[in-house]
Amino acid sequence: MRAEIVSQTAATKDARALASADTAAADALRKEHAELSGRKTLHDNHAELKRRIDIYQQIAKLQTALKACATKDISDRLAAWLRAHLSTEHN
Fold first, then answer.
1. Residue 19 carries which DSSP code?
2. Nearest-CA neighbor of 32 among 57, 16, 15?
């Protein structure tokens, strides 16, 4: 992690030095800096991100279970069966 911070700091210094001299190199350094900053943010928030991913996975499982417990299809089939087999025409 320290090596990444040192690298990020060096990249920032290089980007500032080259910003006025070479636009393409400065853009590349800015892109690298943004990538390293993003990685650091992910690293710093790893535990919270893992916790949230676990929560969303549990929610998805619960939603699947709720759909499996739905009785609308059974009720619709029963109603159709009753209409077909217990209509006034059969009596």
1. T
2. 15
**How far is residue 9's CA from residue 3's CA, in Å, rounded to a whole number?**
10
pLDDT per residue as tens digits for the range 18-72: 666 667 777 888 899 999 999 999 999 999 999 999 999 999 999 999 888 888 8
Structural contact between residues 43 and 3, judged by C-beta atoms closer than 8 angstroms = no
Report the alpha-carbon distance of residue 84 to residue 81 in Å, rounded: 5
Residue that is written with structure tokens 């911070």 in the block: 5
Between CA 44 and CA 8 the distance in angstroms is 15
Q: CA–CA separation, 28 vs 15, rounded Å?
A: 8
